[in-house]
Each structure stands twice: as C-alpha cells, then as structure tokens.
Amino acid sequence: MKREIYNEEHELFRASARRFVEERVAPFHAQWEKDGQVSREVWREAGEGGFLCCSVPEEYGGVGGDFRFGAVFTEELARMGTSGPSFHLHSEIVAPYLIHYGTEEQKRKWLPKMVSGEVIAAVAMTEPGAGSDLQNIRTTAIADGDDYVINGQKVFISNGQLADLVVLACKTDPSAGGKGVSLVLVEGDREGFTRGRNLEKAGYKAQDTSELFFNDVRVPKSNLLGVEGRGFKQLMQQLAQERLVIAVRSATSIEAALEWTTTYTKERKAFGQSIADFQNTRFKLAELKTQVQIARVFVDKCIEEVIKGTLAVDTAAMAKYWCSDIENRVIDECLQLHGGYGFMWEYRVARAYADARVQRIYGGTNEIMKELIARQL
Ligand SMILES: Cc1cc2nc3c(=O)[nH]c(=O)nc-3n(C[C@H](O)[C@H](O)[C@H](O)COP(=O)(O)OP(=O)(O)OC[C@H]3O[C@@H](n4cnc5c(N)ncnc54)[C@H](O)[C@@H]3O)c2cc1C
Questions:
Q1: Alpha carbon 61 to its chain's center
Q2: Which is deepest, 77, 89, 135, 197, by most CB within 10 Å?
Q3: Residue 355 and residue 71: Cα distance in Å, rounded?
Q4: H-run or E-run covering 182
Q5: pLDDT of 54-98, one tens digit each?
Q6: Pocket of ligand 1 (CB under 6 A)
C-alpha cells in the first residue's frame, strides 16, 4: 500500500538521511559494537547534516520541521539495522521536553547545541528500585537557597556515557508521591555527578547504556524544567511520542528483515530448489508481509495524529506494544528462514533479533502499555 504521509520534502530528506546512514553510520557500526558506544564524531556529523532535532524552531537553531523528519531518520537507521546512535532519544524525546517546558534561557542555551550535535542529551527516569513504577523514584532534588541538591541513582540510561545534558526525573517533594516529581536539567560536568560502567547488553551493543550517580550535586534552581511537582505529568505527556518512535523503529525493522529474508531465501538452495520455493517459506513470507503491512498502516496513522496533536496515550501504547511484539515474532521467523546463518552475528538478521527484544521493555514495558489501554475501556 502506498504511504501517503510523506511529501516531496520528506522524501528528499530521506534520500540524504539514507546516504548519511550508509556512508557515515553503517561502516563503523561493527567497531562501535565492540566499543560499546558510537563516536562523538558521528553526532557532530549528524548535526552538520541537519539530521538532529528537526522539530526545534528556527530561533533556536533548528528548522522547525514536523515529527515526520525525525520519523524518516529513525526509519533510515532502522532499515540498515543500525541501533547504536541514539539520535531519536536526543531529538524526538529530550528536545521536545526543552521545547515544551524550557524557559527562554534554557532553550537558547541548549537547543542550538543539541541541533549541532555538540551537546548529547539523555533522559534519566529509571532507578534500580523503580522502573515501571515511576512515581516511586527515590532520587531527590532538595531546595537549598538558590540551588537544588541532588542525591540518588539512575540505571539503564541511554546515552549515559556520552551525555552532556541529562533531563533528570527526581523528587523535589519526597512526601508528595507522584505530585512531588520534577524534571531538573543536570549538566554532565557537575561536581558529584558520576557515571557507572557502560552496561553490557543482549542487544543494542553499540549504544551506551549506564548507571548514573548523584552525590550532593548542586544545580541552580533555574535548572528546573517546567513546573515544580509537575514532572510526572510532563513525562506522561511526552511519553506518547517516545512510544511512537519505538513503533516507527519496529515497523521499519520488520520491513527490512522481510526484505533481507526474501532475498536470502530466493538465493539459498536446498533439495535442488530455492528455499523460497517451499510452500512453507512462501506461506511464512506471506504471513510476515501481511503483518508488516498492517503495522505500517497503523504507525503511519499514528504519525498523522501526532502532527495533528491528537495522538492519544492509549493509541500510542497500542502502537508501541503491538508493533514491538510483532517485531519480535517477525524477526524470529526471518531468522529461522536463514537457518544457521541467521544465528551468526555478521548477518543483519541476527543483530535485528537481538535488538528487537528491548523494544518490548523500554519506553514502558508492553504490560504497562496494556494497562494504559485497559484504563480507557
Ligand atoms: C537498553 C535499555 C535502555 C533504556 N533506556 C532508558 C533511558 O534512556 N532512560 C530511562 O529512564 N530508562 C531507560 N530504560 C529503562 C526502561 O524504561 C525500564 O527498564 C522499563 O521501564 C522497565 O522497568 P524495570 O526494568 O524496572 O522493570 P520492572 O518495572 O521491575 O518490571 C519487571 C516486570 O514486571 C512487570 N510489571 C511491572 N509493573 C507491572 C504492572 N503494574 N502490571 C503488570 N506487570 C507489571 C513489567 O512489565 C516487567 O515485565 C532502558 C532500559 C533498557 C533495557
């Protein structure tokens, strides 16, 4: 089915994004997997190419594009199976926090450098004792004169090693439950802020994911992002878009995996014929194609809704949960059709299989997504 959400401008952007991913990301990815993180250089290059934070308004150094530009870039990264650079988190998740809740000063200070890739951003919500149950985070930012003093620990933070700026979810009023949560900006070089080890993961091997520690970290009160005590609400408002980004990646990863698998099964021979000629393969590919198509149509509809500002929390949850579930099933079948080669790391389908698993966990687990959907019934 023809996609109708993108216009000529988006397709031109896609052509240059594809070239960028093919030339500046894919060739280095295997090395980054060994390093456990991507280079700073690729962030700068992405910034120079105009691929970061496309929705940032012109007065803050961006181009003021809509969500579709970020979606296109996410699609092109997923199409090549390159999961290392966490550009989408920086551009589609952190930048919108600043755009929506930042003061004029915060926007002027941070957004131009995020657009250029000079500053890499992260968002730190999860703690060792609280992931799904975000209202129970224990990191505190207690007012002291003109400052907040921050103490606590975060875990599983994407861009954790590279981040120059962290949007931190913490309690400014520990006695107020969810209503005591605030978002505070923490610069990477603040005294008392340290990074733990770069965590070894089952997938997303080129992406740095870390523990972060805050030990009497002082930041000025002007680092508060948005309204004190409204942090949980602010997070919930932005999480719908974060979840859609995950669905965009899922929908594209399965398209790519299906393409690789179709090509592979046509070339590979067994019992004197192509694997693709066995009825089992043909039926499997037909089933996968159907799932891929349905995912794409639903995700495109959600993208339309984001642009109109009407994407509901439960619809975004459906997209995230269903597409990431389907991603895992489709890629598992694709791997199976590759036989033993599918299990080899040098095959993109093996990497895609490993990378798919976390899509059901981060951004809110799929169980939490079902909770959000059920609440509206
Ligand atoms: C690679 C990676 C990158 C990440 N990046 C970030 C990041 O950048 N920033 C950040 O803040 N976090 C990040 N996370 C954390 C991620 O969002 C959390 O892992 C996730 O929200 C789940 O929290 P948890 O791990 O504490 O699991 P738990 O909350 O302990 O959940 C364990 C299990 O219990 C289930 N469960 C929990 N509550 C319920 C319920 N009410 N009903 C039914 N089932 C339930 C869950 O679904 C899950 O299956 C990342 C995680 C990974 C693995």
A1: 22
A2: 77
A3: 18
A4: strand 181-187
A5: 999 999 999 999 999 999 999 999 999 999 999 999 999 999 999
A6: 122-126, 131-132, 156-158, 201, 204, 209, 358, 361-362, 364-365, 367-368, 371
